Give the backbone structure.
Amino acid sequence: MPPAPPANPNRATFSASEPTYTQPQSSYVPPPVQSDNPYAASYPSSAKPPTQSYAKGSVPNYLVWAILATLCCCLPAGIVAIVYAAQVDGKLSSGDYEGALAASNNAKMWSWISFGASAVVGVLYFLLIMMGAIADPGRY
Amino acid sequence: MDKAAASRFLLPAFILAILVVAFLLWQFDPNQVGNPFPPCPSRWLTGLYCPGCGATRALHALLHGNLEKAISMNVVFVFSLPLVALMLMHQLVRLPSACVAVVKFFGDARPWAWLLISYAVLRNLPWYPFNLLAPG
């Protein structure tokens, strides 16, 4: 009589690799939402699944521009931009896609405000230096 | 704007800006009176240090190989400089996947917001050890 065949090695690995059926929350990328929809904010919040979490990066947070605006422009607008950038990630992880889009647009806008204001300040400063050089050429 | 279009216009602009800033910092010392670099407008208006105060002097020290002085000018600026450069490159060109992983790891804005806002507050406190965060 032949010996009993060994236990099927695939059996153990099969049960060990049995998939666990959790919600693929972090990998779900929502369809693009029109950001210029004026009624986006007036949708009832119950229409969204309450625990739905969106993929990080599905809404741009303009983080690098906000950091550059904060560290290189030296204006409070950079802090505003980085707070809105943080709101993008916070609202994405809590499932507020429209809120994340609004915060994303604000982060972009405040980064531009910071860059624009510092460019204006820089040009004014340059003009003042030039005027000073013209008025008192001996110092330069 | 996709990466190809971004790198066509923004990449040369950034390289040019970096070269101009490096040349100016090589020629002029921002520590000396009458230097051509603009002062921090926030400090000029309010007398308070902003998170970027000392960045020009830190860059000057870095360019002249003095890492210790650069850190004493603006420690957060010095340590975030390579990360921000990598993030900026990620916006403009296609990076190798290891660099993209680093960018993704530091891509959440919430820790950055906490870091920079608390830095803005702490470096204005006059007591040890917070006064080490002020430039100089």
User: Anything to note?
Assistant: Residues 11-17 of chain A have pLDDT under 50 and may be disordered. The helical segments of chain A are 9-16, 63-73, 76-93, 97-135.
